[in-house]
Design goal:
six-stranded mixed beta sheet; 17 strands; 8 helices; 347 residues; single chain
């Protein structure tokens, strides 16, 4: 009864009466920073030593298995507020060490039950963390996978390398959809490097649209910046209002969410919203239109569950992460996941 009531509330939030909802198919698309999903073995050439059994975090097989279980719990529940039996069709992830971790993750019972698969390309990050894409093959069919490199342009950065942009082209609801999964340079560097990422992803988006003007593009990731920051608003060009988005441009539905005082990670008692999912013009209703004869953006949400937060002690009220203050908390991540819902009228 509680599940049915929750579904009814969410359908009403989406602007759909239950009978109307039967006319439409809804698809969840999510993103989650998994906060250091490392296995227990050293990867040659990578600085992963703190996540080894004798490393600083004493990263044992037991801790790794707990981490896999916790991550799979969250990933399996993302999107279930609207789609209780299905969850998300596609979920981008960041801070994953390697292909082996993604294989182990998809073997977790809650994800294996839905036959989740993954896309991954090994990247150049010095710590070894990459982006990946999990997907339900019954809903999303992969066409191609490539890692577009992040390119430094300063002479002093020559030889540096960081995470690229995982670009997965596929078919969702019978339509060409391309997902770009990002993890932009951290706030340990200046904003210049994230602005550079924004410019490069914008150029990638434009090249994809040149190849197929009808392609529906979803850009997601831990951007290490908020929606109004220059990297997102100017360099990437993701607009706050749908009415301001012109053909070929991008809409960022997270501006208003962050303006309301909430976000996906907390720093010094204030919320940031780094975990964003941005869509291109082809996924938007235009002013005066209200048709869903093709796949369209409908709604977005920050995924929240009580178990994702500390309920006692020094960190009460904060997001329950894997480690804090050098102590293993058996938690989840320092980020909350985000989800968008796409909708299309059934033929």
């Amino acid at each position: 009864m509680r599940k049915k009531l929750s579904l009814l509330i969410m359908l009403l939030a989406l602007g759909l009466a239950p009978l109307q909802a039967q006319r439409y198919s809804i698809y969840g698309v999510g993103f989650y920073n998994l906060e250091n999903l490392f296995d227990t073995k050293h990867d040659e050439g990578k600085n992963d030593y703190e996540y080894l059994p004798d490393g600083r975090n004493k990263w044992t097989e037991m801790k790794y298995q707990h981490k896999l279980h916790n991550m799979s719990t969250v990933l399996s529940e993302m999107g279930t507020d609207v789609l209780p039996d299905v969850g998300c069709a596609v979920i981008g992830v960041s801070e994953v060490e390697n292909r082996h971790c993604l294989q182990d993750l998809c073997e977790q019972p809650k994800l294996k039950k839905r036959n989740f698969k993954f896309c991954h390309v090994e990247g150049p990050d010095r710590r070894g963390v990459d982006c990946g894409l999990l997907y339900n093959p019954a809903l999303f069919k992969v066409r191609s996978v490539r890692l577009v490199p992040y390119v430094y342009d300063l002479e002093k950065d020559k030889g540096h390398a960081t995470r690229g942009f995982l670009t997965v082209s596929g078919t969702l609801a019978g339509e060409h959809v391309t997902v770009i999964v990002c993890h932009w340079p951290s706030r340990g560097t200046t904003s210049y490097y994230r602005e550079l990422a924004g410019k490069q992803v914008k150029a990638l988006k434009e090249s994809l649209q040149k190849e197929d003007p009808q392609v529906k593009i979803i850009i997601m990731g831990d951007m290490n910046d908020d929606p109004r920051d220059r990297s997102m608003s100017v360099c990437l060009g993701a607009k706050r209002e749908i009415k301001d988005v012109k053909p070929g441009e991008l809409y960022n539905p997270w501006w208003k969410v962050h303006d309301s005082g909430t976000g996906t990670l907390m720093y010094d008692g204030a919320w940031n919203l780094f975990d964003q999912i941005v869509v291109n013009y082809n996924l938007l209703h235009q002013e005066g239109q209200n048709d869903y004869n093709t796949l369209k953006f409908r709604q977005n949400q920050i995924f929240r569950r009580d178990y994702l937060f500390q309920t006692e002690g020094q960190y009460k009220g904060n997001i329950k992460r894997t480690h804090a203050g050098g102590v293993w908390l058996d938690g989840y991540s320092d980020h909350l996941p985000t989800v968008i819902y796409l909708m299309k009228e059934r033929k």
